[in-house]
Structure formats: structure tokens, C-alpha cells
TrEMBL record:
Annotated positions binding ATP: 47-54
Function of the protein: Transfers the gamma-phosphate of ATP to the 4'-position of a tetraacyldisaccharide 1-phosphate intermediate (termed DS-1-P) to form tetraacyldisaccharide 1,4'-bis-phosphate (lipid IVA).
Keyword Plastid: no
Name of the protein: Tetraacyldisaccharide 4'-kinase
Enzyme Commission designation: 2.7.1.130
Family, per entry: Belongs to the LpxK family.
Reactions catalysed, as given in the entry: a lipid A disaccharide + ATP = a lipid IVA + ADP + H(+)
Any GO molecular function: lipid-A 4'-kinase activity
Swiss-Prot/TrEMBL keywords: ATP-binding, Kinase, Lipid A biosynthesis, Lipid biosynthesis, Lipid metabolism, Nucleotide-binding, Transferase
PANTHER family: TETRAACYLDISACCHARIDE 4'-KINASE, TETRAACYLDISACCHARIDE 4'-KINASE, MITOCHONDRIAL-RELATED
Alphabetical list of InterPro entries matching this protein: LpxK (IPR003758), P-loop_NTPase (IPR027417)
Pathway(s) it belongs to: Glycolipid biosynthesis; lipid IV(A) biosynthesis; lipid IV(A) from (3R)-3-hydroxytetradecanoyl-[acyl-carrier-protein] and UDP-N-acetyl-alpha-D-glucosamine: step 6/6
């Protein structure tokens, strides 16, 4: 907690009261929640950004699409369009958002990807246009107007919601008891050498805010082999990192271990690259003569950089993408997927 937290405490109290009253009104039914005509699985968190929602949504789609007709729906954070849209091969990040476009491209367009601010209206439209067994909603834990069929709550290992505080003192969008709406809790971004004692301590901290039958699972971030973005230049191993993430610590830490990191260019989450930033990025190779550096970025940032590269920008430095996915221990993976398959099995 920052030293100036006491100055922010009154604002945090106001925010807690407002969000608490809102949740109370929904719990009592005084504010109405609606069921979707399509079964829904909600993936979300209590905190703002950086919990690994997109890798989790991709994990679910990858492991469930063979047995279920599945799609994803999100608000499309950062897009410059409004209303309901379906991603297509010609979609841009400006139209549907960087993360929805990433999901659409990762699965080759075989999995429908939709965006819409009003999730209830979007689901009603999806039901009219598609025959689906399940829609996975990204970042809809606080969208109380929709009553989901199952809820997966994500919380990062480095700062679980049980140790975090409500905005603006901490990063929580609502107070900790909101976690009781979760059917499953996944502790994300765990260290590779996570010990049983660390697991037990984390679970003990979370348990007081959860229903007794809520399972707590653990996942890690796994990085793949960098691949080229629209060129045939070999990967040199000398990299300049570029990312627009809510929390880039794991990305930078892994890259420093695996590659020769010459420079780190960090921008805010869902950042749009333009103007002087592009000149800075394009000229970065001149700062490291003899190293033959490449630009290494995230999958989320790559969907924006690809469109820039196609328009002639960033031609001075090859761009590579570091793929990422959520990984579970076998028993946790089986528990998660078995729960979902049982919950959403075809009748």
C-alpha cells in the first residue's frame, strides 16, 4: 500500500459504499438481472487488469471447442467503435479491440468472437444468429445485469484479492466479499516453482471470502517460441521488448532470462501506437549497432503492430511475437474442465 493511501481512503470508502449498494440491490432483486438465452460462462476478476483473462479464455476455448459449440463475447475494451460486432478476417483492433481480435486470429476464425457493451442484448442477438452450446464472457464479473450460468474468478498470485484494497487505495473494483459469486477461483501467474506451502497460504487467505464449496485452482503463464510477424528474418536473440500491458513484470522477467534484452519499451494497457512513438520504435535498431536487434512484443500488441507494418511503418526493425498460454497442473486442469463440461453438457 502506498504511503499516501490515507489521503485516498475517503474516496475508497465512497467507492466501496457505491459498489456495495449496487451489489446489494442486485442480490435483493431490486435491480433486475437477466438470464441469457445461450448458456454463459463468465471469466473475470475483482481487480483492474493484469490477471490473465485473455490467456484463460483462450485456454477454455482450446480445450472445450471439440465437445461444445463455443464462442466468446467481451466489451471490446479500447475499440473505437460502438455497439454489437462480430469479428471477421477484415476486422481491425480499432473496430473490435485488440484482445478479441487476438482470439479470433488465434483460432483461425473458426470460433465466433463478438463484442458489445450491453452483454444482455448481445447474447440475445447471438442466440438469434448462431446455434451455440456456450458463450465465454471475458471480463463480465461486475456486469450484474447479466446472470451467468457459471463464474470463474481470476486473481494474480503476486497480489490476490484477499490482500488487495478497493480503488483508489488498491486495485479492487469491488470489495472482497464479491468473490462469493464465484463458482471457481483460479490463482493466475503463479511462479514456476510454486510450493505446497505457498499454495496453502494463498488458499487460506482467499477462503474467508469464498463459499465453502468453491474450488481454488492454480495456473501459470507459459511462453512459446517467438514467431515472425510478416517477414522471414531470423530471430537473433537480441531483443527490444515492446508491450502495452497492465502488468508487464512477468513478460520482462521471462525475456531477460531467455534472451539478450537490449531495451524495454513499456506503454499503458491497450495502448495505441502512433506519432513520435513509432519513430522511436522504428529507430531503435540504430541505437544498438552490431547486435541485429529484433522487436519482441506480445500477442495483444501484435494485432496493432501488424496493421502498422502492413501500412509501411516499422520496416526498419523485424517484429517477433512471443506467444503465451495458461497452464495448469494435470489435477487442476481436469477439475476445471470436468466442472465446465458437466455444467454445460449437451442435454
Amino acid at each position: 500500500m502506498p504511503w499516501y493511501a490515507f489521503l485516498l481512503a475517503p474516496f475508497a470508502l465512497i467507492f466501496r459504499v457505491v459498489t456495495g449498494i449496487r451489489n446489494w440491490l442486485y442480490d435483493l432483486g431490486l435491480l433486475k438481472s437477466f438470464r441469457s438465452p445461450v448458456p454463459t460462462l463468465i471469466v473475470g476478476n475483482l481487480s483492474v487488469g493484469g490477471t490473465g483473462k485473455t490467456p484463460m479464455v483462450e485456454f477454455l476455448i482450446k480445450n472445450l471447442r471439440d465437445g461444445l459449440r463455443i464462442a466468446s463475447l467481451s466489451r471490446g475494451y479500447g475499440r473505437k467503435s460502438k455497439g454489437f460486432l462480430a469479428a471477421n478476417p477484415d476486422s481491425t483492433a480499432e473496430e473490435v479491440g485488440d484482445e478479441p481480435l487476438q482470439i479470433f486470429r488465434k483460432f483461425g476464425g473458426e470460433v465466433p468472437v463478438f463484442v458489445g457493451e450491453d452483454r444482455v442484448a448481445a447474447l440475445e442477438r447471438i442466440a438469434r444468429e448462431k446455434e451455440l452450446d456456450l458463450v465465454v464472457l471475458d471480463d463480465a464479473f461486475q456486469h450484474r445485469r447479466l446472470r451467468g450460468d457459471a463464474y470463474i474468478l481470476l486473481t494474480p498470485f503476486s497480489m490476490p484479492f484477499s490482500r488487495d484494497f478497493i480503488l483508489p487505495v488498491g486495485r479492487l473494483r469491488e470489495s472482497r466479499p464479491g468473490a462469493r459469486r464465484a463458482d471457481l477461483v483460479v490463482v493466475t501467474k503463479c511462479p514456476r516453482d510454486l510450493s505446497p506451502a505457498q499454495k496453502q497460504k494463498t488458499v487460506q487467505g482467499l477462503r474467508r471470502y469464498l463459499s465453502p464449496d468453491t474450488a481454488v485452482l492454480f495456473s501459470k503463464i507459459d511462453y512459446g517460441t517467438p514467431y515472425a510477424l510478416g517477414h522471414d528474418v531470423a530471430f537473433s536473440g537480441s531483443v527490444v521488448l515492446l508491450s502495452g500491458l497492465a502488468d508487464d513484470r512477468l513478460f520482462v522477467e521471462y525475456c531477460r532470462e531467455a534472451f539478450d534484452v537490449l531495451e524495454v519499451l513499456a506503454f499503458p494497457d491497450h495502448h495505441d501506437y502512433e506519432g513520435p512513438e513509432l519513430d522511436k520504435i522504428a529507430g531503435v535498431s540504430q541505437k544498438h549497432p552490431g547486435k541485429s536487434p529484433v522487436l519482441l512484443t506480445t500477442e495483444k500488441d501484435a494485432v496493432k503492430l501488424k496493421s502498422l507494418a502492413n501500412r509501411g511503418f516499422l520496416g526498419e526493425i523485424p517484429i517477433f511475437v512471443l506467444p503465451v498460454e495458461a497452464r495448469f497442473e494435470p489435477e487442476d486442469k481436469q477439475m476445471l474442465l470436468s466442472y465446465i463440461r458437466e455444467k454445460f453438457r449437451k442435454k
